[in-house]
């Protein structure tokens, strides 16, 4: 059993960062990298065994759109890995997973939860390629392909894996219910793309409501299963606030159930905190 970290952006906000920006947590690579290192360290201290880097939204096109050169963008992407590695070294142990966020994260319009894209598989492979090769050569232990909403995007990432045969990765999908990824493809079919790929260490789901997780676990075959859902809260757009705060102890108890259902990797995504991760460890020990 491997305990993952929780919501990086969520904890950065708790540490005082203002992430109201299309770059989201990646803007701190420019403005305050030390707080990213601290957030990773806090998750390690809480019991996480993996730090997922602040590169989710840190694409070259996004930084160039902000006015940086391609070279400066590359340096910031590499910095995201270095910060996680420094936190890991300070803690003394752990794994660094370089986040490969979906094309939808760059669009910044919620498409990572719909898969409604304006690029086909070839276009998606081209869009991801530069960052992929930067992260593959960054010294990270593996690449975390996460919140993938689209079957075509999953195929594109599989092609990039083949371009970097020495790279290990996990692939985690965003799902709209207990059976389908966000674009409507059955999770069983999307997961099957990677079942025979020796470079892929696990396949799973993230940034998905906790109520769907047990059902989704049963639809992944051929690889160890990974789950790191969000907290289950819903966004009240009218009042601009989150509703239904998920209690960390309840989340930890649910995580023990996901492990019992077959998940070998468990953590949290948006709106989860170091306390959620600490509670996962406590409930696993109790079990």
Automatic annotation (TrEMBL):
One of its GO terms (molecular function) is zinc ion binding. Residues 1-284 form the Hcy-binding domain. InterPro entries: BHMT-like, HCY_dom, HCY_dom_sf, Hcy_S-methyltransferase. GO terms for biological process: methionine biosynthetic process; methylation; S-methylmethionine cycle. PROSITE patterns: HCY. Its cofactor is Zn(2+). Zn(2+) binds at residues 207, 269-270. SUPFAM superfamilies: Homocysteine S-methyltransferase. It holds the Pfam family S-methyl_trans. Keywords: Metal-binding, Methyltransferase, Transferase, Zinc. Coiled coil: none annotated. PANTHER family: HOMOCYSTEINE S-METHYLTRANSFERASE-LIKE ISOFORM 1, ZGC:172121. This is S-methylmethionine:homocysteine methyltransferase.
């Amino acid at each position: 059993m491997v305990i993952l970290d929780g919501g990086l952006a969520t904890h950065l906000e708790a540490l005082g960062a203002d992430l109201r920006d299309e770059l989201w947590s990646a803007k701190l690579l420019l403005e305050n990298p030390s707080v990213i290192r601290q957030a990773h360290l806090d998750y390690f201290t809480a019991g996480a065994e993996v730090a997922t880097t602040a590169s989710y939204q840190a694409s070259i096109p996004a930084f160039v759109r902000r006015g940086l050169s391609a070279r400066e963008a590359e340096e910031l992407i590499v910095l995201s890995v270095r910060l996680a590695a420094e936190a890991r070294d300070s803690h003394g142990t752990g794994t660094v997973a370089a986040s490969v966020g979906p094309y939808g994260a760059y669009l910044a319009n919620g498409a990572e939860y719909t898969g409604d894209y304006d690029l086909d598989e070839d276009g998606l492979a081209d869009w991801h390629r530069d960052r992929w090769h930067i992260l593959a050569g960054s010294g990270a232990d593996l690449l975390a392909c996460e919140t993938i909403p689209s079957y075509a995007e999953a195929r594109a990432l599989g092609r990039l894996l083949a371009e970097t045969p020495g790279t290990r990765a996990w692939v985690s999908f965003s799902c709209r219910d207990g059976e389908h990824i966000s674009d409507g493809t059955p999770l069983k079919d999307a997961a099957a793309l990677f079942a025979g790929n020796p470079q892929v260490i696990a396949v799973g789901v993230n940034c998905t409501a906790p109520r769907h997780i047990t059902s989704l676990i049963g639809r992944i075959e051929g690889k160890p299963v990974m789950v790191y859902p969000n907290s289950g809260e819903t966004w009240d757009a009218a009042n601009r606030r989150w509703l239904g705060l998920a209690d960390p102890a309840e989340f930890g108890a649910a995580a023990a159930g996901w492990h019992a259902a077959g998940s070998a990797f468990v953590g949290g995504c948006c709106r989860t905190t170091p306390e959620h991760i600490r509670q996962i460890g406590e409930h696993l020990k109790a079990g």
